[in-house]
3beta-hydroxysteroid 3-dehydrogenase (Penicillium nalgiovense), 356 residues
Amino acid sequence: MFFSATLNHFFFQGCTNSANMASTVIITGATGSLALEAVQQLLSSHPSLTIVGTVRNASKSPKSPHLLRLEEMAHQYPSSKLLIKSVDLNSISEVGAFSNEIADLVESNELPRISAIICNAFTWSLEGQQFSKDRMESTFQVNHLSHFLLVLRLLRSMDPETGRVVMLSSEVHDPEHPNAFSKLGAELPSDENLDSLIKPDADEAGTEHDMGWRRYANSKLANVMFMRSLNRRLQQNPQFSKITVTAMDPGGLVDSRAHAAQKSFTRVLFRLLAFSLPVTRLFTHKLRSNSDSARDVLALALAPEYASARGHFNGTKSQLPARVSEDAGKCEAIWQACWSWVGMKEDETCISKSYP
């Protein structure tokens, strides 16, 4: 589904020269709360970019109000370019097919080279386990595995001078950080039991909510570890060493639709926080709106001051990640497992399976 969209006189602050040249920006989960804000900001400020937004099903009828809003942006900005693509991240084969399609379009010059991949899409299940079409635990597959595959398959299609990958992290990725909404936080299994990330034992009765939070936290920790592992490999590759990877914690998004899955008390709390955000943000940087964090993620993806940035960020501020994500052995074990789970082959990417 291809749309044109128009230049608004408002420009995203911090835009870079490369962002003003023809290039492609991919953002997954384009109908998500943060992503819709990011797409609108891109369309209004970067008319030279081609934006590829992935959604689960662009042809589903009736269309969700969020997909309708995404499509309406095309009419609102008719001089910019928006390509809406159906990709179900619960299907490894669909992610592979999409990656091949985009790579072919870049190779044939029908799409400009990719300047940024923003791995935004996510899911969670706080009421029990959900499984993908590939019979893997859905939270880990959607939030991490499918992005692992997407990025590795598209590295050759990125601009080798200015390409950037932005992974979405979360405060709860850190096992040492208490989670105010769950008794359980991130906890990766032993290297011998990593398969439990995709084939977990059944939740014990009464633990579904907290185990759902753990699965979500583990997927975000895996994203941060992927950032580290991929940066190490890119820096060893002379041809692609200028491509950078960051992982960004967007903060507590008070107006995110994702809170609909939370407990009733938490939903009410976030509605109150959204109402009071103009005052609350004076005292803490942890609570933000979708619009705030959209600007942050686009800064990491496009702004000149982050052209060589690597590592973990809270918004646009550099932040140390969880200590376990600095464990080279654990990062490598997760990388090797994910490579196997998605069926990656050496000739499908420019990055090696094993670290030199």
In short: The chain has one domain: 2-348. Residues 2-348 form a domain with the Rossmann fold fold (CATH 3.40.50.720). The chain has a mean pLDDT of 89. The chain has nine helices and eleven strands.
